[in-house]
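User: My instructor asked us to take a sequence, write out its structure as C-alpha cells, and then describe one feature of it. I'm not sure where to start. Here is the sequence I was given:
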Amino acid sequence: MISLALLLTVAAANPPVSLAETPISVLNVSKEVGEFCTEHLAVELGQRKIRVITPREVAALLGVERQRQLLGCDGSSNCMAELGNALGADGLIISDLARLGSKYQLNVRVLRSDTGEPLATFSSSTDREEGLVPLIGQAADTIARALAPKGAAPVVVAEAPPGPDEPRLHRWPWVPTAVAAGLVAVSVVLHLLAASDYSALTNPGASVIPNAERADQLAGRGKALMISAFVGYGLATASLAVAAILFARGEAPVSASVTVSGSGGGVVLGGSF
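Assistant: Let's start with the prediction itself. The C-alpha cells for your sequence are:
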C-alpha cells in the first residue's frame, strides 16, 4: 500500500507534458510528405510519454475555422496563451522541413504556451528522403530530454535495425573486393606457371633439354599464361576501384561475374553506382 501511494504521488507530481502541434511548414517538399512528418513526430513523441495534440485533433476539438486562427498565430505570448488555454497544452510545436539542393533540413521548436519561451530546439539534415524517419526520431529524443522533469530520465525509444530490403551503408563494397582478391590469387598462380615454363626453356642446367616442338609448346603456353596473369591483375585493379566507389557512396547491392582465359578476360558488375 505504501509503495502504491508513493507511485501515485510521483505520477501526480509529474503529469505528462501536453503539446499542441502545428502542421510542418514545407519548402520544396510535397504536401503528403509534410503531413506524414507531422503525424510521425506526434507518434514518436507519444512513444516517449509526451501527449501531442495533432492538427487533426485540433480541428476536431475547435473546428476548422478556429483551428486556422489559432495555428496561424505569430508566436506572440498572447496568441500562444490563447492556444494553450483552448487546448489545455503546455507548449506548441513549430516545425519546418525544406529540401535545399540534395539535403533535407528539419527544424523543430517547442515554445511554452503561456510565455512563448523556447523549451526545446532541434535542427539537423539528411541526404535522402528515407532518412527523414530516423531524423524525426532524433528530434523526438531531443525534445523528450529537454522536457523531462528534473531528476527523471527521459524515455528514449531504440530504433529498430534496418530490414532486409533496406540498403546498409558500406555493406556491398565487399563483393567487388572479394572478386579482386580471387583475381589476384588466380593471377599469381598463372604468373608462377608462366615463370616455370620460362625457366624450363632458359635454364642451362636442366637435366632434360626440350626439343624444338616441346620448346614451342612451352613458349606458347608460357606466353598465354603470362597474358592471362596480367589481365587478371588489371581486372583486380578495376574491381578495387568499383569497391572504393561503392564504399564512398554506400549504394544498393551489385552482382559480379568474372571470365579469364588465355587470350583475355572480363568482369561484369550489375547494380547501382
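For the description part of your assignment, you could build on this observation: The chain has two domains: 15-147, 174-271. Try explaining in your own words what that tells you about the chain.
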